[in-house]
Predict the 3D structure of the following.
Amino acid sequence: MIDVTAEAAPEAAASERVAAAADDDLLLLRQMLLLRAYDERAVTLQRQGRLSAYPMFWGEEGIQAGALAAVRESDWLFPTYRQNALPVLRGAPPEQVLSYFNGDPRGLLDPRRYACAPQCVPVATQIPHAVGWAWGRANAGSDDVAVVFFGDGATSEGDFHEGVNLAGVLRAPVVLLCTNNGWAISTPVARQTAAKAIVDKAAGYGIVGVQVDGFDARAVRDVVAVAAERARAGAGPTLVEATCYRIGPHATADDPARYRDPAVAETWRAHEPVARLADSLLARGLLTEDELELERANAHARMVEASERLAAQGPVDRRRLIEHVHVEPPPLLEAQLGGRTA
Amino acid sequence: MIDVTAEAAPEAAASERVAAAADDDLLLLRQMLLLRAYDERAVTLQRQGRLSAYPMFWGEEGIQAGALAAVRESDWLFPTYRQNALPVLRGAPPEQVLSYFNGDPRGLLDPRRYACAPQCVPVATQIPHAVGWAWGRANAGSDDVAVVFFGDGATSEGDFHEGVNLAGVLRAPVVLLCTNNGWAISTPVARQTAAKAIVDKAAGYGIVGVQVDGFDARAVRDVVAVAAERARAGAGPTLVEATCYRIGPHATADDPARYRDPAVAETWRAHEPVARLADSLLARGLLTEDELELERANAHARMVEASERLAAQGPVDRRRLIEHVHVEPPPLLEAQLGGRTA
Amino acid sequence: MSFRALERAGVERAADTAVTMVEALQQALDDALERDPQVLLLGEDIGRNGGVFRVTDGLQLRHGAQRVLDMPIAEAGTVGLAVGLCLAGYRPVVEIQFDSFSYPALEQIATHVARYRWRTNGAVAMRMVIRLPFGGGVRAPELHSDSPEALFCHLPGLRVLCPSTPADAFELLGWAIASDDPVIFMEPKRLYRGTRMPLPGAQPGEGPPGARIVCSGTDVTLVSYGASVPTCAAAAEALAAEGISIELVDLRSLWPLDSETVLDSVRRTHRCLIVHEAPQSCGVGAELAALVGEHALHDLHAPPLRVVGPDAPFPLFALEDDYLPSAERVATAARRLVGF
Amino acid sequence: MSFRALERAGVERAADTAVTMVEALQQALDDALERDPQVLLLGEDIGRNGGVFRVTDGLQLRHGAQRVLDMPIAEAGTVGLAVGLCLAGYRPVVEIQFDSFSYPALEQIATHVARYRWRTNGAVAMRMVIRLPFGGGVRAPELHSDSPEALFCHLPGLRVLCPSTPADAFELLGWAIASDDPVIFMEPKRLYRGTRMPLPGAQPGEGPPGARIVCSGTDVTLVSYGASVPTCAAAAEALAAEGISIELVDLRSLWPLDSETVLDSVRRTHRCLIVHEAPQSCGVGAELAALVGEHALHDLHAPPLRVVGPDAPFPLFALEDDYLPSAERVATAARRLVGF
Ligand SMILES: Cc1ncc(C[n+]2csc(CCOP(=O)(O)OP(=O)(O)O)c2C)c(N)n1
Ligand SMILES: Cc1ncc(C[n+]2csc(CCOP(=O)(O)OP(=O)(O)O)c2C)c(N)n1
Ligand SMILES: [Mg+2]
Ligand SMILES: [Mg+2]
């Protein structure tokens, strides 16, 4: 379906731009279909008992793939558990990323390889990391930027505040991308803050704030692209609030029926970003039903293969208990691995 | 000089209000003169080696006395080290408060006695306390409010953020009073935040924000009074930014010449709030030079007496090492006081 | 919930209703909320969701959203808020969702919760309980399996409790809430649903809780707490079959330590083995071993040993069984002790 | 500043210029900034003000505001920023203004600084030093005299160093900055200006620093670190006059502990006394006493004793001399040990 060279026919510059934009959209859709296949597969694997707790992101594919499409390969990403598949969009083997949810240290990636920090578990703590990285790279003369992901719930934490404030003070080239999906586990955003919108927090840090429909992948891409280019040009950070709705549970162990009306969540399903982008491309004649089906099948097949490779992973070496904690395990740790105290 | 009954002559209601307002201003001035005498005395005592490090508040008397004048005796105050004399304005013996700077545990007050929390040392940590107290009292049916003091530097801390955000979510009856004196030790506020004003942070918490000239004691009083009445009426918290300038050093050990132009600080002296209020009262004919001199002398005399009582304090009982840590010192602490390990 | 529903009918608790630790904790919270209007619960997702472990299940419905408060994700702010609530006369019980998420609250805990009484010459008590599900063994995600209890034992001004049975959970939590000292209440999440037992009477015990002798023995004193207690009990059983008699002491209070009970036992068995999940260095086991060395040196027939976590981060769960003290490791160490 | 100005002229440091610990630390930072462009300093008031203790005096002027960064009052944010700087290849050195102000940064330290290398299978090192002026004895305000080192020894993934002389301060800080492991660098503020001594050569030592035998002796091994070392030295001198011979060991590394050196000494003296300011329970002294009990039990002629802080908050300074281990208390305990 996507063949950039074939599309780049000898036409007028304007129509070339249109064609290129269409290609971009098709690539974006492909990435979103991969995320969708990954996410659904992970939930299936979890149900089969082949993964432990898994935090699904069904409905947030547009924000994740949109943001990724807006930046360069060398721009670093700072995800949470919710954006756990970002490295897959940059070529990481899906089974490797999934094995993290199997408690397997081989699921821990080299951040430099995919320009992507480890998925961050303690809420909001990755924000100052992104700011530090971004300022540090700029200080070293690079024009790379950072994109840090966090949720609406994260905005209540001190580390959100300290990190964003530092970004403002240091004019760090960072895009602060808040996925406001309305929920933090069982807590609605209205219980998280009395602010009318997350983006209202930007002025308090002297930075620019933009709100965007998080179900509209192209809009997210465009907004993040502008923010990233501003950052690259030295104009400082931007707080982007991508609004959406957490259609699924918080994670596999969560039961949203305990705290919210399932019917309401259902109504949001109609807005989900994958179908929305696909429908738009279909309507514009840039994609056929058959092509879409093929793309879906490809993504699915990739995940089926990945699951097989996941199953084939051997046991973890016990030495990993003490390895990589320090440059070299001090004698004490070697002794402890042997069951001794010193 | 202040004789409320004498002034309350049989006149028209309007002029009674004017007279009452004048009395309020005179009382406010008296409190500020006491703060000034206390502060200058403390610096002298420190220079004489009779106190250890002392954080002076020269120039911030208007904010402190102004806020106090705006609230009821039962409204709780949550000060930092910089507002260490607040309990004195509510009747605490000055020598008792000063002895804290002598490292004397007798300088630790009973918060209930003066409706005033202990002066808080770790920056910004008192903010959630004020919010908790305020929400708790309101929840128990009281209409008391809390006033929490903090500096411009404190706004960079996570605890500022979490506390103010909680105040917004819980609509706690609290006045969040930021003394923006432009400096946090050697750090200018522009290095503290890129926000144009501290008050710009209010919208991010969905609360009201007001800026006021912190050198104008009456303005501070009026703004805090409105904020306190809003809180009392259940309309939630207000962030008040009282702008001023830290005319003195951060504390006795600090040497501002290392990091700022002493000439600039000198220009701010002309704005200092005690002379400003006194001059206005003199100009309006509500106060004579003689009366002012007498008031000043009284405050000074009170502090001289207090210094004498401070000098007379006996040694601290060694048992205080382990007392008041728990309801009753557990056997371990008794043993440790005796130099044993268990 | 269903358990509680059963109970609501009668005033007296049926002595033969066996409950899990989660249910026991819930009962203790429910009783406290019922008994004392100053008791409040605060935490993330503790309301309609009943907490991620369901300990507070149904309590908001029963006692109202003014007494069971869902908090924003702000651990420092929540503990700081609870300090203010104590100033206003309340007895807040804070639930921190998982062990590691106590770290952001450490400043509030160390500088305020632990020192406010001291800072006010005894005028204001911090009648606060901080509940902390902790430890590994439940295949939890990264940073959901830490054992930070030693940090709270080292910071002066707190009490640290840790039950290992539903009955103890009920009693100790009741005591903690009624206490006028701040209590860090360590809940071994691995034991949340494993065992069932009937609850003791509704009244919390009198004095501060001491250690409990789980089983008496003559050869080795095995000292432990929390989720390692059943591990030690299993080891004791295996060793009994070999003729090694274990006295198992469940500390229950980690600060202060009931050193009397431990020393008394060690003076009889002449051998001491300490077991916990937390890392070795400066852990609770270090303090215990030091106390035993200082106060029972001449009674010892063998060095006090520790079977504890290594000084390494709690692993991703594929390796957690290798990290956690196992009954086998405990038994091996005990055999070493008697072989001295 | 004046010291450094003297030095700027020549490449070789005059071996006979005696410096304070503050000057030694400044020199180590200056050298590191000079040597390695990846070294950055971060902290509150460290720029024009030179830090509240003047350790960074003149360094911003010399190396620029892009290398010596004044930070907003945000300890967690600053340490988090430094994590990001490590990701970008820098070697940040963070100054925390006083001991207790490390508490707000504890989450970043425990969950990121200490675990990032581990979390990335060794791909990303946290080449970070966190400098922490700590301890009492300088008549400082409340919460400016804590000794939290044991917290960092218990949290896995960090190294913890603590010098007690200007020369060691210089060497250990140089080593810490060059190390690829994160280091919590405890600076005993009481010793900042007390003694002067010449500095060793500019090169940091090779392997990780071990303990240092301050003076050899035969009757009691006295183990300490930081500001308690001179106290112990004074006690040793007093005891020598009574014919009691003390071997004084300065740990220098608190995690990992150089247990070899300590055990070797204890095996010779048969007696061990441990001294520090920090509270007793789960302190560094507990770990040491436990190790001595476990590995040298049969060499001991007396129980390992501790002269340490009580499990109480560091007092307002009127009582600090009663809180701190004194030479007299140390000597009394040593006499008790030889009297066993
Ligand atoms: C410091 C900390 N506190 C609590 C948690 C437990 N926790 C995990 S996810 C989560 C909710 C986060 O909500 P939000 O930031 O909106 O992100 P979302 O889950 O919606 O993607 C909570 C409370 C945590 N991981 N870290
Ligand atoms: C958590 C914490 N970090 C650092 C300090 C050291 N410190 C004491 S006062 C101060 C500056 C505070 O500035 P600001 O909030 O503006 O108040 P001001 O001193 O101007 O009244 C600092 C950094 C502290 N007390 N607490
Ligand atoms: Mg969310
Ligand atoms: Mg200020």
